[in-house]
Design goal:
By secondary structure, this protein is mainly alpha-helical. It has helices at residues 4-7, 41-57, 63-70, 78-89, 102-117, 126-135, 151-169, and strands spanning 99-101, 145-147. α3 (63-70) packs across α4, α4 packs antiparallel against α5 and α5 packs across α6. The longest helix has 19 residues, at 151-169.
């Protein structure tokens, strides 16, 4: 059986709140009663990203501050969570996050989805994450610049492909 986050289309395991997330199942239809449930994986990822961006914008602007809020120690091994996310996105736990782009959102999504769902994280595709990033729309504020353009996410695999082909032919 898939993990709870996958079954709920909520790979970030957001707890039930009063937030009117797009694609959120009404509480009367929610069979989990503790975690949000969404109509699609993309809506669940979008909600997770909106929550994270909101927290960064309100001053939780390092991995340590962000994950301490997102995955509190009364529910998680927060120190390990911080270490794993920092390593996955390639920044120190206390590096200030001042701007966000689609590549950062992809790495952050992958890191959290892996932490929350273990090996079932592979059931969430990159295309689902990219679609969720596009669904965010304009979420920039005066404090935080957020570029959700996914053009660079297409270029990276192409560069790796041509590099691999070139390396093999030499």
């Amino acid at each position: 059986m898939a993990t709870r986050g996958i079954r709920n289309n909520n790979p970030g395991n957001l707890i039930i709140t009063n937030n009117a997330w797009q694609g959120k199942l009404p509480l009367s239809q929610n069979t989990d009663k503790h975690f949000e449930q969404f109509t699609s994986m993309e809506y669940g990822i979008r909600a997770m990203l909106k929550d994270l961006i909101h927290d960064i914008n309100k001053g939780k602007n390092t991995v340590r501050k962000l994950i301490s809020e997102y995955a509190p120690s009364f529910e998680n091994n927060t120190a390990q969570y911080i270490k794993d996310v920092s390593q996955s996105i390639g920044v120190s736990a206390d590096t200030k996050i001042t701007s966000i782009n689609a590549s950062f959102l992809m790495l952050l999504s992958r890191a959290i989805i892996k932490k929350e769902n273990g090996s079932d994280a592979s059931k969430v595709s990159d295309s689902q994450i990219k679609k969720a990033i596009k669904m965010l729309g304009n979420v920039s504020t005066e404090v935080l610049k957020v570029d959700t353009s996914t053009k660079t996410l297409i270029v990276i695999p192409l560069i790796l492909f041509f590099y691999t082909v070139l390396a093999i032919t030499l």
